[in-house]
Amino acid sequence: MDLVNVTIDGQKLSVPKGFTILEAARLAGIDIPTLCHHPDQEVKAVCRVCVVEVEGSRTLQAACAYPVAEGMVVRTNTPLVRQTRRMVVELMLARHPADCPSCTRNLHCELQTLAERLGIREVRFGREEKGLPLDDSNPAIVRDPNRCILCRRCVEACHKVQGVGILYPVHRGADAIVAPAFEKPLAELPCVYCGQCINACPVGAIYEVDHTERVWKAIHDPSKHVLVQTAPATRVSLGEEMGLGVGAIVTGKMVAALRRLGFDRVFDTNFTADLTIMEEGHELIHRLTHGGVLPMLTSCSPGWIKFLEHYYPEFIPNVSTCKSPQQMFGAVAKTYYAEKMGWKPEDVYVVSIMPCTAKKFEAQRPEMDDSGVQDVDAVLTVRELGRMIREAGLDVTALPEEDYDDPLGRSTGAAAIFGATGGVMEAALRTAYEVVTGKPLPKLDFEEVRGLQGIKEATVAMDGTQVKVAVAHSLGHARRLLEAVKSGQAQYHFIEIMCCPGGCIGGGGQPVPTTNEARQRRIDAIYQVDRNLPLRKSHENPAIQELYREFLGQPLGEKSHHLLHTHYTARPRYRKA
Amino acid sequence: MLYRAHVLVCNGTNCSLKASPEIQKEFSRLLPEYGLDKEVKVVETGCFGLCEYGPTVVVFPDGTFYSGVKVSDVREIVSEHLYKGRVVKRLLYQVPPAAKPVQVYPEVDYFRHQVRVVLRNCGFIDPESIEEYIARGGYQALGKALTAMTPAQVVEEIKASGLRGRGGAGFPTGLKWQFAARADGSGPKYVVCNADEGEPGTFKDRLILEGDPHAVLEGMALAGYAVGAHQGYVYIRGEYVLSIERLERAIAQAREMGLLGKNILGSGFDFDVEIRLGAGAYVCGEETALFESLEGGRGEPRIKPPYPTDAGLFGRPTVINNVETLANVPVIIERGASWFRTLGTQKTPGTKVFTLTGDIVNAGLIEVPMGITLREIIYNIGGGIPNGRQFKLAQTGGTSGGVIPPELLDVPMDYDSLAAHGSALGSGALLIIDDSHCIVDVAKSFSFFFLHESCGKCTPCREGTLQLHRIMERISRGEATRTDLENMKALAQAMYVAPLCPLGQTAPLPLMSTFRWFESEYLAHVVGKTCPAGVCPVDGTAARAAAGCAAREV
After folding, report:
1. Which of A256, A467, A542, B207 could disulfide-link A402, Cβ–Cβ 3.0 to 4.6 Å?
2. Range B351-434 classified under CATH 3.40.50.300
3. pLDDT single digits (tens) B380-389
């Protein structure tokens, strides 16, 4: 590695060529404050908080962007630097709402932290509000442009990572805001509600539609049987909301916390993840053996499904008709389980804990009412659940590890890995292989489809057939993969697509910050969950076997068709006014 | 065909707004009536310069200079001057009205003190005729370079000339070319002509392009040859309709004659030019914002480094030069660097084109040697301040420059001397303001300009221009306190050093410059709650209301 010699605040050090001043300073033990900087994103250098003196330069330079050079002399703590940084933050605060306590990001806000760190006690300019309208047009995401500090991290998430391109800077100067084209509400646009913008936002300018109040109301309503399901990825991320380390496995403590919050039954979306594998695995086999439309595409991720409906409707015949595990759960809970308990579906209230904002949209899709009422009533993100646990004053360190309720709390390791990119594929292969070949899998782990690489491929031999599979996560990669399929450049039998980078562990409803480093640690944790479970193949789940025996009959059967499968609708990209 | 006389009708934007096309048509209609259409030729030219007294008509070979010509005057010029040989005295330039009329244009003070290098053809040739450009030596330089010079020699010649960028920053042009010439040649390189002239009060680039478009194209082709680029773009303001039209025609003519396109003059060198229109954002004059806009994106500056000569347009090495800079290039190559150095000063050789506007008798387009003083420009060329008022200040360099108070009237006009006094030579705007204006009111118009033109990308510019303008508004209304002045200074200090691009970095400059030279006038507003010029709405009511309010609270 080429090194260059630089002097930072009098410290001489050799740093790799190509490093920015910010990176070099960190080697010197100096943490230059930043705001628009994001570890997974391109350098933007728009907030100008990280400015430093570079000898020979007329102006200060943004440490996040300025590359080191041989002999460079940098000063990060001079009167000019300190005064300038404070001025920049004061300027931001002058037009940022001064109501921190009522903000979703209070105590988790990068601007607040920065102001505290720089010791800002007054704002020299009269505070004024932008007075812009809130966009609460849709069931998933709220945008408050008044809080926006125009760091553009959401813009990169939306454009570069997801390739959706809804959010962009519009207008100039002091009127500049980040907004959709023509400042239309998100509901009128092909936004997929993935929530990656929320994860990227340093302040509270974008957040989920809050369901906590309606959940509290249901819990306190004695006429309701309130059932809760927890998505696979939540058990490795909720700990971050409780002050535990990134990647902590908190399955048992989450169950205990949910019981103490007052849920009548604590069930697991992993149960219906296993059910999804049964249905989807058989659907794949059916398509492979009956000349069905290939490649088959997975359907678990509601952000991906909305993306498909807007941008790739030509692939609708390829997508598995299986509902997502969340929706299968709602349908099964309000029919099979309600019947078992002698409850009427309308008295059952199903709450899901999701790593996702698009799930809020999915739950209220009009076709998701096969139980006769809306199958899933409320969807909480991991962040919302964190807020409820904090409000209730539950100390997770003191909580015991408890088990899910039976039977809808029973699951296998195959279901757990749904939370990571490649997991649905791996789970499906574990079952499909054994169903097709009738032989036990020689090796359970499909390492080729794991990890954070954007597009992954594998070939699996099943009874002499070479089944070619691919996995993509983030819609940017999904788009690339679909274009390759469309052009005939690539051919597959089965493709898993997850909307969010890293899969659900990187979802838009996960604790902030969700960085690639956090994603990797949550992925490691979720495979640990898989390894720790006695059963690791969906078809071995006894509760699933019982469900088929007692209620559904067989995979792809009449009842499954009615309750567990769905259809998709092409949606326009732009609506005429 | 040979003509006895030529009638040059200025058809620059300023004159054409005052009906010069109709004047030209009237000449063409009347000449046959007097049987003169075989003897006298009417030529539509670009800007002749003295815009204040347009439309101007010059009759050659004698050079008789008629100003303020109306359509109804044409018959008299034809019947008297062209038919009978008698000069129409009442149409001669006569400023002030009591002064002696001047018959031929070189004797007008306005022209007498100018040195025209860039404007050598403006007002003298038909800008829509490549033949006329060639007849005045046009494309000689390109021919010389392609046949007798290596690209490196062209770069050396420009370096030796000491030519500095005329867009405002004054960066050595030859050095810029050298960087681009040495940059990664594994892919295409580009030459971009920055014609996004956005400084208020500046319209020199427009008039150069209207008056002599081929000079700019030839300059671009020379730049392309020097650095190894084969494609040029002119990024021009969409409002510059006439410039665009003439440039398009010039490009077509040059292509037709093999002076642009493949294998220019049989040399094997390929170079072509395309036009891209801007949508009127000031920030797009900043080179990297210009690239963003040219590529189809939102006009916003990029992070530097990388610099354009390494990664500019489409991420490739790019030379970007101002219109005036490029118009200098052919003359330098043709006549040599040492000739160029005889003009101007040691550190800033050559001339500078200014647009002289505001409270000045002879408003218009001028070209003077670098190093001339403002006093010479105002009083010798500009004819002084009209209406018996006194000179108060000049804004040089457009809005991004500082101001020049009466104390600095004898400072040489070049990049370094002006910078040393907190001002800038800038793009060549020269706005003269007399003592009827209030400094706070003037400064407030500057702060509003930046508020309006900030792109909003970086915090200090987006928020800082707003707060600067808020403070100026308070001062103007008599609502400001000394704390506001302190805050303004602190904000200016941050804005000099923190923004992403020069727009934000220079936004406080005109304010602080006016504050520096006219502090007492600011204090009159802030402390005395009066506007000495009687311009600002400081009638005291706002201030008294605030005081009464405070008293009640106590």
Report:
1. A256
2. no
3. 999 999 999 9
Candidates A431, A480, A486; CA nearest to A457 is: A480
CB-nearest partner of A174 from B305, B466, B497: B466
The question of whether A367 is a catalytic residue gets the answer: yes
Q: Is B4's Cβ below 8 Å from some Cβ in A?
A: no
State the nearest Cα–Cα gap between B134 and chain A, in angstroms. 44
Q: Which residue of B has its CA nearest to A53?
A: B497
* Cβ–Cβ contact B506 with A under 8 A: no
Check B303 against A150: CB less than 8 A apart: no
Largest CA distance in chain A: 80
Residue-wise over A365-388: b if at least 16 C-beta within 10 A, else e? beebbbbebbbbbbbbbbbbbbeb
**What string of DSSP letters covers B437-473?**
S-HHHHHHHHHHHHHHH--S-SHHHHHHHHHHHHHHH
- Domain annotation for chain A: domains and CATH numbers: 3-77 (3.10.20.740), 92-208 (3.30.70.20), 212-564 (3.40.50.1780)
Q: Where does residue B84 rank: exposed (0-12), middle (13-18), buried (19+ CB within 10 A)?
A: exposed
Contact present, A101 and A150 (Cβ < 8 Å): no
* Fold topology of B439-553: de novo design (two linked rop proteins) (1.20.1440)
In the block, residue with structure tokens 């059916």 = A286
Tens digit of pLDDT per residue, chain B (554 long)?
Answer: 789 999 999 998 889 888 999 999 999 999 999 999 999 999 999 998 888 898 999 999 999 999 999 999 999 999 999 999 999 999 999 888 878 889 888 888 899 999 999 999 999 999 999 999 999 999 999 999 999 999 999 999 999 999 999 988 899 999 999 999 999 999 999 999 999 998 888 899 999 999 999 999 999 999 999 999 999 999 999 999 999 999 999 999 999 999 999 999 999 999 999 999 999 899 999 999 999 999 999 999 999 999 999 999 999 999 999 999 999 999 999 999 999 999 999 999 999 999 999 999 999 999 999 999 999 999 999 999 999 999 999 988 778 778 899 999 999 998 888 888 878 888 888 999 999 999 999 999 999 999 999 999 999 999 999 999 999 999 999 999 999 999 999 999 999 999 999 999 999 999 999 999 999 999 999 999 999 999 999 875 544 444 444 433 33
Tell me, yes or no, if B296 comes closer than 8 A to chain A by beta carbon.
Answer: no
Catalytic annotation on A300? yes
Give A59's contacts in chain B (Cβ within 8 Å). 496-499, 505
CATH of range B130-340; options 3.40.50.300, 3.30.950.10, 1.10.10.10, 3.40.50.11540: 3.40.50.11540
Alpha carbon distance A464, B393 (integer Å):
89
Is B505 in the A-facing interface, judged by CB distances under 8 Å? yes
Q: Which residues, 6+ apart, have CB-to-CB distance to B201 below 8 Å?
A: B355, B357, B358, B395, B398, B429, B430, B431
The type of residue at B244 is I
Select from B462, B493, B499 the Cβ nearest to the Cβ of A173.
B462
Task: Say whether A129 is catalytic.
Answer: no
Q: Are B278 and B235 in contact (CB under 8 A)?
A: yes
CATH number of B5-106: 3.40.30.10
Task: Mutate one of A37, A91, A148 to test the B interface: name it (highest B CB count within 10 A).
Answer: A91
Paired tokens of B113:
């003190």
Predicted structure pTM score: 0.93
- A226: β partners: A349
Please work out, in degrees rounded to the nearest 5, the angle formed at the alpha carbon of residue B515 by the alpha carbons of B509 and B516: 90
Instruction: Provide DSSP, B5-52.
Output: EEEEEE-SHHHHHTTHHHHHHHHHHHHHHTT-TTTEEEEEES--S-GG
Give me the residue from B451, B459, B487 closest to A88, CB to CB. Answer: B459
For the record, the structure tokens of A71 come out as 């002999």
